[in-house]
Amino acid sequence: MKVEFTASAKLDLQDLRRYVRQFKPPGTWQIVKEQLRKQVSHLSQFPDAGAIPDELTGYSAGYRQVMNNQERLIYRVTGDTLYVHVICAQVQDLQEDLLKRLTRP
Questions:
Q1: pLDDT tens digits for 20-38?
Q2: Measured between alpha carbons, how far is 90 from 7 in angstroms, rounded to an integer?
Q3: CA 37/CA 43 separation, integer angstroms
Q4: Residue range 52-84, pLDDT digits in tens
Q5: Distance (Å, rounded) from C-alpha 86 to C-alpha 25?
Q6: Which CATH number does the domain housing residue 92 bear?
Q7: Which residue segment(s) compose the domain that 92 sits in?
Q8: pTM above 0.90, yes or no
Q9: Looking at the 3D structure of the chain, how many domains does it have?
């Protein structure tokens, strides 16, 4: 299955990288990046592996999520493509994060 990162997910990744490099021990970004890479690779083979996010229950768009130690990845499958929409910290308020996206310049 083909994997595409939306523009907002690419910005999330940049924000995450900047945060980890600034506030976490050296080398942490490489670990986080590898965990995300493995997660995306697994999803490309098993796209139904994720759960429906509680905050998005009731939406018919088919969004799913997977979590690792600290990050949350929200995605949707359309045809033969898996679209990654959100990469955020597990502790982040998803509603607040989505609102931030709507108001992002």
A1: 899 889 999 999 999 999 9
A2: 20
A3: 10
A4: 888 777 776 788 999 887 888 999 999 999 999
A5: 24
A6: 3.30.2310.20
A7: 2-103
A8: no
A9: 1
